[in-house]
Amino acid sequence: xxxxxxxxxxxxxxxxxxxxxxxxxxxxxxxxxxxxxxxxxxxxxxxxxxxxxxxxxxxxxxxxxxxxxxxxxxxxxxxxxxxxxxxxxxxxxxxxxxxxxxxxxxxxxxxxxxxxxxxxxxxxxxxxxxxxxxxxxxxxxxxxxxxxxxxxxxxxxxxxxxxxxxxxxxxxxxxxxxxxxxxxxxxxxxxxxxxxxxxxxxxxxxxxxxxxxxxxxxxxxxxxxxxxxxxxxxxxxxxxxxxxxxxxxxxxxxxxxxxxxxxxxxxxxxxxxxxxxxxxxxxxxxxxxxxxxxxxxxxxxxxxxxxxxxxxxxxxxxxxxxxxxxxxxxxxxxxxxxxxxxxxxxxxxxxxxxxxxxxxxxxxxxxxxxxxxxxxxxxxxxxxxxxxxxxxxxxxxxxxxxxxxxxxxxxxxxxxxxxxxxxxxxxxxxxxxxxxxxxxxxxxxxxxxxxxxxxxxxxxxxxxxxxxxxxxxxxxxxxxxxxxxxxxxxxxxxxxxxxxxxxxxxxxxxxxxxxxxxxxxx
Length: 522
Fold this sequence. Notes:
Helices cover 53% and strands 11% of the residues. By secondary structure, it is an alpha+beta fold. It folds into 4 domains: 6-62 and 81-86, Helicase, Ruva Protein, domain 3 (Orthogonal Bundle); 118-164, no CATH class; 173-331, 3-Layer(aba) Sandwich (Glutaredoxin), CATH 3.40.30; 410-521, Roll (Ubiquitin-like (UB roll)), CATH 3.10.20.90. Strand 8 and strand 9 (488-490) form a beta hairpin. 17% of the residues are buried. Residues 341-376 are annotated as: Disordered. InterPro entries: Thioredoxin-like_sf, UAS, UBA-like_sf, Ubiquitin-like_domsf, UBX_dom, UBX_domain-protein.
């Protein structure tokens, strides 16, 4: 079978492949055949990847059992109908009104309109009806009526509603939640609990965070979210809280589901709670809604309302409805939690493997670096040794060349005709004594050069060629001339002629400088 080529796929097929591999983390080459068998339906492919492929293909069975079409048009229609029967609908089966999304909590408190009391409603109902009828009939002649009269009558009709509107200071979502919990405890707590203040336990385990954060937490942790919306201006609000929310049955229910249920409450006079009531299609107070991640196909993990409880209700009935709704969706959430735990375990294992691989790779790199450093150190040592040997060899060669050159440049020993010649007796380090005459005006360097080049002078032959002074070489004498009795050292750097330093004659000893330094160190 030929290997699929990703570049030959259409843009929609490549998008489906990318979506499938991001969820299943499967190799793209191995994923293409499965997507082809699923007619490039990502949902079917993901389900078959995790649950396994069925023994028989529904589409193939339907096509095999279908009668042969008589026309091309019939075949196309039949193929589309079979394909539609086997392919799940891409549209969500969830009612759009049940889908729960994040609310906009950044705005200020909206202007809230409350229904006036029954007494005012009865009084102003005839006037309201008459005003609407007259305004509708006489609207073409509205320019004949003064504008201020119309505005005045409209203000009188709705003045009661305007007076009933209350404004609350807008707070951040978390502060809003804490204010609701604090007011709830102050309004419905017992006297002894209110006296205890901060040390008393909250009446109900409300979440101290905004609705959006609580919704995200419930979605991430795959938990149920119970939203309770209260309206203090509602007549049944106080009894609902006292008899239902604070009942022992409801508290026991919350305690038994505290591991998989989050409780969030809000006052509709607050901006965020008002937005939540609009999002949850709240039509009457008090209001409660149970939200969880939908298990319907095509929902893409959206949070949806699975139960709405509107108006006052006995605690037993509320607990029964909540228990039934949770039980019906518990299986799907448990499976989703298991898949999430498996994915997390796989991710943790992959991270541990990657971390171990990185550590091993770092160790290998460190060993390779140390090995390179050692090889480089050995190479540098060998290079330095070769350079040092080369320098020593060059110095030795230059020294020998200099001795030969200096021996050739030394003047000959003065004869008997030179009356002021100075006789010098020199004891060499080998013990040999050499006696030679020097001119009195000769520099001390000539005496040092004679001692340095003595061996060359002894081995000099008549056929030796003239040798040039080595370029860039500066000779250093490794000895000094010393007069033993009394001891006096004739340093070369002191300069002067032989006659000035030595006198008419002298007995000198050659003392190696290196040997003397070594003796001093010993």
